[in-house]
């Protein structure tokens, strides 16, 4: 800024003082805006309202924030997509990858019922019956017509059923008819885990007479052998023969 005095001789002291004061005020403004060494000093929002500023040490196309010294710094962007800043946001059909948390509230589930995943890998509530089925604790499986049964010429009835829970097989059986052999056996689908056992609940008839003592069974592989007493006595190869019992074993 400059001042032009047309007639220095005629300028009075008051006029000179006014010019000096104006010059001094402009020097102070310059120092405020640019500092004593010509660099930018204190900058206010008002002074930037109609101008621009280009700070150094910033990276193009990155967000700007202030550091601990209140200087502007560039911040690296992590991730992609939209930024959610709400405290309790509502997300519509989001796709979530690996996530962790302390709690999760889901709709569409029934309280006090087990939770499973369906074919679409969505969580669904299941009844206790469904849970037992999923764990292998379902209805009894009828093996009567599949089992290889030895010791009868004909049958009055035959029931062989099993239920498998993990590697434990529960069995109950009831077979009656006309005996044609002293050997009395039937088979099951799952082989025993390399053991032979006995003393199960077995009752029945031998040659038409009811057994007066507890019978015995043993199992080797998939074959169950029945005896009419604990001394492994064989049944009679004629007359009415009935065996009934129940047991469980560990399958291989």
What characteristics describe this protein?
single chain; 252 residues; alpha+beta; 3-stranded antiparallel β-sheet; 2 helices; 13 strands; 29% strand; rod-shaped
SSE layout and pairings?
Blueprint: H1 13-34, E1 64-66, E2 72-74, E3 115-117, E4 123-125, H2 128-134, E5 141-142, E6 152-165, E7 168-179, E8 185-187, E9 201-206, E10 209-210, E11 216-220, E12 223-227, E13 240-250
Antiparallel strand pairs: 1-2, 3-4, 5-6, 6-7, 7-13, 8-12, 9-10, 9-13, 11-12
Number of helices: 2
Large-scale geometry = rod-shaped
Class by SSE composition = alpha+beta
Could you spell the SSE succession in H and E letters? HEEEEHEEEEEEEEE
User: What is the percentage of strand-forming residues?
Assistant: 25-35%
Beta strands, count: 13
What's the main sheet like? 6 strands, antiparallel
Low-confidence stretches: none
Major sheet: arrangement of strands: 5-6-7-13-9-10
Task: Please state the average pLDDT score.
Answer: 81
- What is the C-alpha radius of gyration, as a whole number of Å? 48 Å
- Summarize the amount of helix as a percent range: 10-25%
End-to-end separation in angstroms reads 103 Å
* Oligomeric state of this protein: single chain
Give an account of the 3D structure.
- This protein has 252 residues and is an alpha+beta fold.
- Among the domains are: 13-45; 111-137, no CATH class; 143-250.
- Helix content is 12%, strand content 29%.
- It is built from two helices and 13 strands; from the N terminus they run αββββαβββββββββ.
- The chain has helices at 13-34, 128-134, and strands at 64-66, 72-74, 115-117, 123-125, 141-142, 152-165, 168-179, 185-187, 201-206, 209-210, 216-220, 223-227, 240-250.
- It has a six-stranded antiparallel β-sheet with strand order 5-6-7-13-9-10, with no helix packed on it.
- Strand 1 (64-66) and strand 2 form a beta hairpin.
- The chain is rod-shaped and about 155 Å long.
- The protein starts with 12 loop residues before the first helix and ends with a strand.
- The model has no long low-confidence stretch (mean pLDDT 81).
